[in-house]
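Schema walkthrough. Field components (list of strings):
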Amino acid sequence: MQVGTRNRRILLEAAMEAIASPRRRQILRLVWGAERSAGEIASTVRDVSWPAVSQNLRVLKDSGLITERRQGTHRYYKADRRALGPLEVVLRQMWTRDLDRLRELAEEEARAKRPRHD
Amino acid sequence: MQVGTRNRRILLEAAMEAIASPRRRQILRLVWGAERSAGEIASTVRDVSWPAVSQNLRVLKDSGLITERRQGTHRYYKADRRALGPLEVVLRQMWTRDLDRLRELAEEEARAKRPRHD
DNA sequence: CAAGTATTTAAGCTATTGCTAAATTAAGTC
DNA sequence: GACTTAATTTAGCAATAGCTTAAATACTTG
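Field assembly_structure (string):
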């Protein structure tokens, strides 16, 4: 029980470090809702090499934020939200704001196109 | 309102980065409950030079996590909890766990000293 | 086991971080 | 103005983070 507490304490710090990186947040988001193979992830990220993705996956895995499942030559990753603890709220808020901002931009654009009636 | 949202979005990311550093968490904790001068902080931290503290204070200030008040030759800093948003919970949890751990250690020690009765 | 696919590991490079010591700024005091 | 105290800024350094390319590993299939 004490051990559990101690472990989680360490994880929270590791998790903080892990998600302090935008790249790793991006990757974490990809495996948030569904399990994905390293290859899928790497070809989605695209502006960075496969090894770079692999290395970031490793950091995420070591911090306990994602789990790995091997099947054949593939490795599937998915987020382990329990490990995030209170950081989950932080991520959600960031991501929600991203969406809000996209929506705002879309609306602005729509307004710009629509003929003004004044 | 939109601008406010956007600004806060940026701050949340900056705040993450800022408190990803153990040193800055240590400093933030010092100015959590009460305003303190740079000097007080620097002489409390002790295992690091004054300039190092000053630089970290600057990062914290730029990220919006602390505020600065100048008075005479002194500069007083204190945490601005609003800027932390959902990260406040994260910090509290870390710090609570620190305390828990200290308490555990103290209890263990007490147990070790107390004569066994079996 | 040879060949192919999926993925990681290794080696090396650049930019950034966190620090130190020395120089500088700013404000108050004689 | 010269001097002291509080704090920051600058310059420079060592360690680390994040990346790239090339090499290695692991599994599958003929």
